[in-house]
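Schema walkthrough. Field components (list of strings):
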Amino acid sequence: MTEVAVTSEKPPAPKKQASRGGGGVRGWFGRQPVWVRAVVVLAATAAAFLLPYVGDVPVIGPQIVTNGVDWTSALFNMSYYVLLALGLNVVVGYAGLLDLGYVGFFAVGAYGTALLTSPDSILYSHTGWAWLAAAPFALALTMLAGLILGWPTLRLRGDYLAIVTLGFAEIIRIVATSTDTLRGDRGFTSIPHPPGSYSDGSPIFGVRDATPYFWLGLVVIILVILGVRNLDRSRVGRSWLAIREDEEAAEVMGVRTTKYKLWAFAIGAFIGGLGGVMFAGEQSFINSQTFVLQFSILVLAGVVMGGSGNIAGAILGGALISYIPDRLRGISFGGTDLYEYRFALFGIVIIVIMILRPQGLIPSRRRAMELKDREKEVAPSE
Amino acid sequence: MLLELDNITLAYGRIQALHGISLTVGEGEIVALIGANGAGKSTTMRAISGLRPVAQGKIRFDGADITKMRADLRVVRGVSQSPEGRGIFPGMTVRENLEMGAYTRRNRTEIDQDMQRVFDLFPRLKEREKQAGGTLSGGEQQMLAVGRALMSRPKLLLLDEPSMGLAPMLIQQIFDIIVEINQQGTTVLLVEQNAQQALSRAHRAYVLETGRIVKEGTGNDLLTDPAVKDAYLGVA
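Field assembly_structure (string):
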């Protein structure tokens, strides 16, 4: 199993790496021979799987774990935020389509699962499926939602697209709040957990320990990373890159822009849907309160903060937007829980990062270049 | 005729940009479109490359009606545009930009040959091969835009303002290369503010005013036409 991970981490062709510049960790990483990179990636993966036990590490461990929130639950939260950041990174980071309503896809994935599995669903007498059986249908539904959103917005760019996507997510939330079928605040209960049980008959995915959910999340994340990497390096990725950098130029190069934009929406939706399906399976309960606008903004902030257009950046950003608020919980400051101030603190952190490092914490080389290019347009120095 | 526009009209919303443009470009020609800002030159180019749907009229290219054809398929048929403002991909290297120009093609050997040809035409690009497009100077970007447009091995090369923002010496150089490209067998339709250069290099030219063609003729005829001289050539 590890062999697979190693080979897919290799660059596609033995191209000359000498020109791969850039300082910092990323530059260093790019210059290392394949085996060093493989070892680093494997070590990081192993470390990620061991995260639930980090609290046992003396001295450092207790500083890392969340005090106010069960640590394994916090890790699971991070895992689906990372997933969402990876998905949104395809739409925003690769294809350059500003999507402010990404939570909509998360919601469709979760509601799709709930409708097919929960006893509260009007479909229950016909379906009442297991979680795993419902997952593919819920995902197909989210991809369809991605296409439905993508189709009418193909001609829109930048701000206009952002507004329409915002509307899309709000429509989904409002429909969920006010239609009887989607049960509004009452929500769906008893959504089944993922399958599997230990030898003593107790379920792997229970309610007491979130560790298995986190591991499941990690596995899904790894699969998504592999898929997204391959796409990015294919003709599809090249087309996204061209569309993002200059859509009109891409079109006159012969890129079928509408097709690839729809692809970006559908793939982004699929990954967001995965997050929703996992979320529903872990929580066992969802209602319309879960899918607020804030959520979309938060994930977008994570992508931008981490480094738009870069997988490592999206992972870091996604993890941070979930970790920081959870870590703040239970720390009291002048009598109030710091968690109450999470959005304020968060805003400050984001502003500071954006001032000091506008390209994100782990930037994509190209993105950094594009950013510089845009600055030149705003203030021509020649 | 390689390209034929028959009474093309086009509107941006309610603003009519083209009022019935008819023009032809023969195989092997350099044809120039000149006119003031907002006369509809670039819009005409966009209609030809398919970036903008036309309201009425017909566009025929290489024996086929392409009026309603998708832009990407027009590239496959042999229409290649160097867009207004150059449209360089800033985060891609010079080589990657040129590779994008060959997006619709699959034959690696031929692509490499054409890449070599572009580097022969523009040795400067070879020197900058691994540099990001966004770091190039204006002149280099223009060379890259023209070179990239050649990478699809077009029958018709559409150049939108190739001299824009360039120093006089560079303008000469770019036009020399355009003529050279033409002599190597590519038909060229170019839009220019720099009427003097365009008319002296083109076989034929059209003068556009507010979305209409008001004059046409050989480059030399128009160069000596008093009205054209007055309006577009300054006091030269």
